Amino acid sequence: MLLQTNLVIETKNLQIFERNFEKYKSNIRFPHVDPSLPSTKDILFQTYENGQLLNDFMDTCKDSKIRKKLAYLGVNAYLKMLFVDNFIHADLHPGNILVHLDEKSPGEPIIIFLDVGLTSSLSRSDKKNFYDLFRAIANYDSTEAATLIIERAPNAKEIDEQSKIGFRKEMAVLIEGVIRTPLKQVEVGLVLRNVLDLGKKYHIKLESY
């Protein structure tokens, strides 16, 4: 949490994200840091970004095309952070995401990511684990997703067959529930907590994802 209070770190993170998403700034943005006004650990000079919080926007926007475009932007922005840049916003939740419609191109949503004090990067093995798991979920293959977690668990050789069966069954229910849940209603923190709870229940140590 101390990293979030050091605004020099957040300044550097904003500059990195801006550079990484330079080609996509028409639809995916971060607050711009003014280099002529040096930031300190207590003060950050950045542009004011106009927009609605993600949940508020989703509550008022009934246009299915816009909603789909927004979901596409959000997913692709995250995948770019993860698989292309390996520099990930580590505090993504609806309160840190603004949305507004482009005045010059009606119907085109613009997504703005805020509060980038916390970031993360994955090791090569973690990146592969996440990629394989994401691919399984994207293919609606909840059984494969559960199997990947079991096979790559640090204590894989110690897991008995009954635990494997139970974990696969409950993970399938959990993942299928997430797949069927509208984007605005998905609570990532709760999903991760449920996965951790299942791991504890069946004595499966979870590898990093």
UniProtKB/TrEMBL annotation:
This is ABC1 atypical kinase-like domain-containing protein. Coiled coil: none annotated. Gene3D superfamilies: Transferase(Phosphotransferase) domain 1. Belongs to the protein kinase superfamily. ADCK protein kinase family. It comes from Adineta steineri. Residues 6-146 form the ABC1 atypical kinase-like domain. InterPro entries: ABC1_dom, ADCK_kinase, Kinase-like_dom_sf.
